[in-house]
Design brief:
Strand content: 25-35%
Structural class: mainly beta
Largest sheet: 5 strands, antiparallel
Order of helices and strands: HEEEEEEEEHEEEEEEEE
Radius of gyration: 35 Å
Oligomer: single chain
Bound molecules: zinc ion
Length: 299
């Protein structure tokens, strides 16, 4: 019969606290913390060690005795996310342990960052200390670091009614019917779309309203990588389209084709929303889509 192992339970405890002396350098660091200042020690080579050490780890030389105030802000150099904090941790919610290089320091300090979630911290994140209410001269006088405030979110809502002036009213009246209306200059014969009241080229008055087809040619275009509520997806293409029989191009979205296949000279046609949904608004035109006709040589 094997005998039970002999076991004795021990507890190592220092009721009232285990007292260590800090030495002059760490002592200075902690004393400054109590006054809500963070200091580093300057080495003989001029580097600033934070937290300070009595000897320069690079050379083994004693530090100079000069203390330099650093921070209080700093930059995260590396970090590890703690999803489930344990009792001994400084925060009772998920946080990051981070190495933080305080402004003016040449070494990094290990501390907790209350970033909210792991996506809110990365190498390069700027952080500021959040001090405890009652500093006592301990590293925990800094309760934790928190990311710099880089944005605020406020709700914006604007309601307005746009009253179309004479020319725009004519043009949108056409759009409501599914027709592009242009104006022909009485002097120089150029056709402008959207419809306008005078000729920007010669200053002549617009003599005649012209119904234009909803087909045209892409003269130039841009591929956009930032989302736009009017665009089908990202990336999307906006283009200048020279409607057939018009003399100036108008700007519109291009759809139903991958962005990288859009070309100058491509023939396109407006894609209208269903007739019963139309209003006097440019929203009637979803976008322009390729017609499949051969490209046009642009002059
Ligand atoms: Zn003109």
């Amino acid at each position: 019969m094997p005998s039970d192992p002999l076991v004795a339970q021990h507890v190592l405890e220092f009721p009232g606290g285990y007292t260590r002396t800090t030495g002059p350098v760490i002592g200075r660091f902690l004393t400054e913390l109590r006054a809500r200042r963070i200091v580093g020690a300057r080495t003989a080579e001029g580097r600033v060690l934070v937290p300070p050490l009595e000897y320069d780890p690079a050379t083994g030389e004693p530090v100079t005795g000069e203390y330099v105030e650093v921070g209080p802000a700093g930059t995260v150099t590396t970090w590890a996310w703690v999803d489930e904090p344990i009792e001994a941790h400084p925060l009772d919610r998920p946080f990051a342990w981070a190495l933080i290089e305080l402004d003016g320091a040449d070494t990094a300090l290990l501390h907790a960052v209350d970033a909210g979630n792991a996506k809110a911290i990365e190498a390069g994140t700027r952080v500021w200390p959040v001090w405890r209410d009652q500093p006592t001269g301990h590293i925990t006088d800094i309760a934790y670091f928190a990311p710099e405030v880089t944005k605020i979110v406020s709700n914006v809502r604007a309601e307005y009614r746009l009253q179309a002036g004479g020319a725009l009213r004519v043009f949108l009246g056409g759009i409501e019917r599914g027709v592009f209306l242009g104006g022909r200059c009485a002097e120089c014969d150029k056709v402008y779309v959207p419809y306008r009241l005078s000729c920007p080229q010669c200053g002549g008055g617009i003599g005649e309203t012209v119904e234009l087809p909803d087909t045209g040619t892409i003269t130039t275009f841009a591929i956009n990588n930032l989302p736009d509520p009017r665009a089908p997806q990202v990336p999307f293409v906006s283009a200048y389209i020279l409607l057939d029989n018009a003399d100036v191009p108008m700007i519109a979205l291009i759809g139903d084709i991958p962005a990288h296949e859009v070309r100058q000279g491509m023939r396109v046609r407006a894609v209208w929303i269903p007739e019963n949904e139309r209003t006097a608004s440019m929203a009637n035109i979803r976008w322009f889509a390729p017609t499949g006709e051969p490209d046009v040589e642009l002059s």
